[in-house]
UniProtKB/TrEMBL annotation:
Residues 2-185 form the Bacterial bifunctional deaminase-reductase C-terminal domain. InterPro entries: DHFR-like_dom_sf, RibDG_C, Riboflavin_Biosynth_HTPR. GO terms for molecular function: 5-amino-6-(5-phosphoribosylamino)uracil reductase activity. It comes from the Bacteria. GO terms for biological process: riboflavin biosynthetic process. It holds the Pfam family RibD_C. This is Dihydrofolate reductase.
Length: 195
């Protein structure tokens, strides 16, 4: 069974965005881009909520073509064009986009079907859930997230969109690894303890 890993930047006090969705507090540099790039290249499926997908779709398909494209822009743009994209949205419909599937209902059944599917390579690859707090909350409430890949930024926002809301039962986690970055961000890589 494939695992869904939630990839999120988070403030020290648990927020993933400011009150109006602001993300200008997130620290990301080449060191972090290189580190993240190695892991996401192992994944073959990206999971997004509608807003995050629209943001990604407006930038990544052509990011590598820009004259000012960075190494990260070029690498991530290539990955984005090949990766299977799954979008959770009640309003967007499947329009026949290449490598893109929309899920609007039967969330648990649809996600479990994707988790049980085998990638073309035959290897069990991670499904990475990028940002998308609303989608993350929906998956969390149905116990569909298998791990949390958190990048804790050295800031206290005081208010905003929290990562963890409406948690009905404890979620036990096992720490797999940590990484400290020069910019002050600390990566925490957890797996959900299903026992």
């Amino acid at each position: 069974m494939r695992k869904i890993i939630s990839f999120m930047h988070i403030s020290l006090d648990g927020f993933v965005a400011g009150p109006n969705g602001e993300m200008n507090w997130i620290k990301a540099d080449e060191e972090i881009f290189d580190y993240v790039g190695k892991r996401i290249r192992e994944g073959d499926t990206a999971l997004y909520g509608r807003l995050t997908y629209q943001m990604m779709e407006s930038y990544w398909p052509t990011a590598a073509d820009k004259p000012t494209a960075t190494k990260h822009d070029i690498e991530h743009s290539k990955w984005y064009s090949k990766v299977n994209k799954v979008v959770l949205s009640k309003t967007m419909k499947d329009t026949g986009l290449t490598n893109t599937k929309f899920i609007s209902d039967n969330l648990s059944d649809s996600i479990n079907e994707i988790k049980k599917s085998r990638p073309a390579s035959g290897e069990s690859k991670e499904i990475l859930l990028f940002g998308s707090p609303t989608a993350t909350h929906s998956l969390m409430q149905q116990n569909l997230i298998d791990g949390y890949w958190l990048f804790v930024n050295p800031i206290i926002l005081g208010q905003g969109i929290p990562l963890f809301v409406d948690i009905k039962d404890k979620i036990k986690l096992n720490l797999l690894s940590t990484q400290q970055f020069t910019c002050g961000v600390t990566e925490l890589n957890y797996t959900v303890d299903r026992q």
